[in-house]
Amino acid sequence: xxxxxxxxxxxxxxxxxxxxxxxxxxxxxxxxxxxxxxxxxxxxxxxxxxxxxxxxxxxxxxxxxxxxxxxxxxxxxx
Length: 78
What we know:
globular
């Protein structure tokens, strides 16, 4: 994330525990939640847009035939 130029602008606004994981998807989720509470925060908006773009670029190879079962939450059995 340190490679994202806008990350430095918003790092202090994000959960330090989440940032410490160095997991872009977790940090993005934290940023999206914070943006929902502060929709006028342009720096946070810029980070979310840039991070979403990176996730999209890295994951856009998934199609209907892809096995993503390992990424699904287990369903509750009744």
